[in-house]
Amino acid sequence: MSRLVPELICSNIQASLAFYRLLGFKIRYERPQERFAYLERGGADLMLEQPLSRDRLYPRAELDYPYGRGINLTVEVDDVDQIHTTLLAAGYEMWLPLEERWYERTVDAVGVRQFAVQDPDGYLLRISQHLGTRPR
């Protein structure tokens, strides 16, 4: 079995933890002395780290906001409207407004209800709820 678990460098782990808790992530385990936390939410896992130094896996280039340019991470959920409402109430700006979208594939189309938001360090997250499939 293979799994992809992103590890996101953050500038303030407490601010990042507060944001990801709004998304429904729970701490699976953490090492506070290393400013590290492993989070999970219904099969979606990610790691957060606020580096203590610039050794080991720290990027070679300077980190400038927004972090993670060129990628967006999709988190599949079953409560997209609730999460959207929670983030708006907390003052987060939506990068992509809440929408219903159908993406064509070879023989069918898959539907999602989704929005995108940036975390405190600018990582772009697409929060997506599966709506089903339909013929193309």
Automatic annotation (TrEMBL):
Superkingdom classification of source: Bacteria
Record bears the keyword Calcium: no
Any GO BP annotation: response to antibiotic
The name this protein goes by in its record: Bleomycin resistance protein
Organism of derivation: Streptosporangium subroseum
Listed Pfam families: Glyoxalase
Keyword terms: Antibiotic resistance
Domain VOC: 1-130
Family: Belongs to the bleomycin resistance protein family.
CDD domains: BLMA_like
